[in-house]
């Protein structure tokens, strides 16, 4: 080998560092569904990224224009399939609003709705926390979280025969009554689950590796969060105490004592992935408090309003209502012509907004951190794509 | 700048006068109506002067029977204790154009893409008005009342009767 070519081989002067387009998804274990993210990278650094959604699109809104109002409740289950109770409730609330104040939901039904929604919130947050741990490399919490979630699903199975798509909350009330045995199951669960939250909190929140992977990562400033319409734990993680259960109480939420946990930047920067995670852990405790109070105070009586009987024909009009679902604000805009089939249904899905902020907070992050950021958003693609 | 709905509407009316073409505060969904041309200015007013910093929902509705398309914006403050307002804008079916407000509320970017995709309202000035939920090569806007489902898509037969 001549000395010339030896010089060429080690001289990196003509090498160029190039930006690369990296396709993540739509089938990727860390995207929590069929999300595709196009990432422009410079080595390990994310320069820009763009989420492509729509892979699960089945035009829920179009479905609702071709099936009856009661049948539409079934489709709402499939939006955010981890909090189907909330979807049922959100949709029914919008429909019920069309009747105006003359439609009164029976007390017992209101209590059952709250119990189911809060248990479902716990189940959903358990899954969020478990899979989030797994995203950043902790397998154990995932197994524990699923064990507890299983208990909640068993309760739901007893209540309505379903474990995921409940179709339980209907316009005017709920589908079936719950008996004392079921209330006993819920009481047992409350007693069992309280200490368990602390256990998982210890297991993950104080884990040094977990904290290093999430603190200071994916910082979402308040202003950006509001501008992108983020709600739920994502917004609260940035320190804003916006919770519709407190601010615009629907159902009977004003009767219960609970706090609204917000991010404080305790391990890193305010609004980082750790804050969003921590908000979910604390919300589970608050939800448990609400369930305990509701089980204690549940009255007897009817479970369905007598105002709605037989075929459901919502009165002519338009209504927009929102509820605080596990992932944020779930809104439904319904337009009724007074027929059995609604004229137009629009679903405002929280995950749709929460994921749209992804490019804004992941620029400059490492590729591995992008996984942590997506996980901390806790999106459900069934709801993003509708 | 906290204000109730009456004050809010009074403020808007003072600034915009006859450019608010309809007002209905009695129904379930109190709303104001304006022409598309007024919208960007009204949007900025709502955000900057009235503190409504969140665009919660954008619904596109085909009103049918020759009444054209309508966009319904639910605008709110992040402080959910305060009241928001909904704004309705009607556009004709043959020229459904509304100026984009993505520069006012970032979230309007995806909202408008969705509304274009499903209802077919064109948002002028949007930096990237492409389909978001349907496939890129999808034809038509599914939530239009005159929409006909295609018989085939890429050779796959539509089995819906």
CATH superfamily of chain A: Cytochrome-c3 Hydrogenase, chain B
Strand proportion of chain B, as a percent range, falls in 25-35%
Number of domains of chain B: 1
Secondary-structure element pattern of chain A, one letter each: HEEEHHHHHEEHHHHHHEEEHHHH
* Number of strand segments of chain A: 8
Order of strands, widest sheet of chain B: 1-2-5-4-3
**Estimated share of beta-strand residues of chain A:** 5-15%
Shape of chain A: globular
- Give the overall form of chain B: elongated
Largest sheet entry of chain A? 3 strands, antiparallel
Any low-confidence stretches of chain A, pLDDT <50, length ≥5? none
Q: Characterize the largest beta sheet of chain B: strand count, sense, and whether it forms a barrel.
A: 5 strands, mixed
Q: What is the CATH top level name of chain A?
A: Mainly Alpha
Radius of gyration of chain A: 23 Å
At the third CATH level, what is the topology name of chain A? Answer: Cytochrome-c3 Hydrogenase, chain B
Identify the strand order in the major beta sheet of chain A.
1-2-3
**Could you state the CATH homologous superfamily of chain B?**
NADH:ubiquinone oxidoreductase Nqo5 subunit
Structural class of chain A: alpha+beta
Q: Radius of gyration of chain B, rounded?
A: 17 Å
Q: At the third CATH level, what is the topology name of chain B?
A: Beta Polymerase, domain 2
Please give the alpha-carbon distance between the first and last residues of chain A: 64 Å
Task: Describe what is shown at a glance.
The complex is a heterodimer of chains A (386) and B (161). With 386 residues, chain A is of the alpha+beta class. Chain A has helices at residues 3-10, 60-64, 69-77, 84-97, 107-135, 140-160, 180-205, 208-214, 222-227, 233-237, 244-247, 273-297, 350-356, 358-362, 367-377, 381-385; strands at 20-24, 36-42, 45-52, 169-170, 173-174, 317-325, 328-336, 344-348.
